[in-house]
Design goal:
Layout (H helix, E strand, L loop, with lengths): L1 E12 L3 H9 L1 H5 L5 E5 L4 E5 L6 E8 L3 E5 L8 E10 L5 E12 L3 H25 L6 E9 L3 H11 L11 E4 L7 E9 L2 E6 L2 E7 L4 E8 L6 H18 L2
Antiparallel strand pairs: 1-7, 2-3, 3-4, 4-5, 5-6, 6-7, 8-13, 9-10, 10-11, 11-12, 12-13
InterPro entries: START-like_dom_sf (IPR023393)
Protein name: SRPBCC domain-containing protein
Organism: Actinophytocola gossypii
């Protein structure tokens, strides 16, 4: 069994088409709001991503700067594929509409569980893209993607995460949060997105995301936008977050 799927997200932004294009069509731009490390190879028509053991490559099907970007995976033997299309539409008064369409095919009897996880993650990342363009346009972030241990009790893990963020109950958009990891400066911020499988927090210099891995662990996927943040800093931060996730997941 399996099923085709298609969904569309849309947002109106104050960012310019040029700022949006840099965010969706360059490796450093995608690094600043998505997860893992990203490369856009327009010369060879490919978008490459890497996080954990997952290293997908997408074939670019549409490349029209400041207007349209489309790319997708090749179809696997079981029919699996996923494709993305971004459309940028300039409006009066300097606002711009960004649309993202996601489509594909998920095989297997558990396709609906995988689709729910994908849809929840896509909603969070699209909200993150909008938040990045609203608050950090022009700045480049370094991505941190860290996987915690396998989770056996998700309700307890979400409660532990909320407590670690300084909250007495489940996170809600607008909640003020704070967290501190050994070896890293304490951070304060605000919840900008939440659904049943994800939480997004914005600080003065970063976008911090927590999501339920499909059939797996709690994942921390952050973009640090602190000026002067180096590869060495990233390695230290990833180590700190890995230790933090070990004590937060159940």
């Amino acid at each position: 069994m399996g099923r085709e799927f298609e969904s569309t997200d849309q947002v109106e932004l104050d960012a310019s088409p040029e700022e949006i294009w840099r965010a969706i069509a360059t490796g450093p731009g995608i690094d600043s709001w998505f997860m893992g490390r990203n490369e856009v190879d327009a010369a060879h028509g490919a978008v490459r991503q890497s996080f954990g053991d997952f290293q997908p490559e997408y074939r670019i099907a549409g490349w029209e700067p400041m207007w349209r970007l489309a790319y997708g995976t090749d179809e696997a033997p079981d029919g699996r594929f996923v494709a993305y299309e971004f459309l940028i539409e300039g409006r009066d008064r300097s606002s711009t509409v960004l649309r993202m369409a996601t489509s594909g095919f998920l095989p297997g009897d558990d396709w609906s569980d995988e689709y729910d996880a994908m849809r929840a993650g896509n909603a969070m990342f699209f909200a993150t893209l909008a938040t990045y363009l609203t608050h950090f346009a022009g700045r480049t972030g370094r991505p941190l993607t860290v996987f915690g241990p396998p989770v056996t009790d998700w309700p307890a893990t979400w409660r532990a995460l909320a407590s670690a963020l300084g909250l007495a109950g489940p996170p809600m958009v607008g909640d003020r949060v704070s967290f501190a990891l050994e070896g890293l400066p304490p951070a304060r911020g605000e919840v900008y997105f939440v659904n049943s499988q994800t939480v997004g927090v914005r600080t003065a210099d970063g976008l911090y995301r927590f999501l339920k891995g499909f059939r797996g662990p709690l994942i921390a996927c952050h973009s640090v936008l602190t000026p002067g943040f180096t590869e060495t800093d990233r390695d230290a931060a990833e180590s700190a977050w890995r230790s933090w996730l070990t004590t937060t997941s159940f």
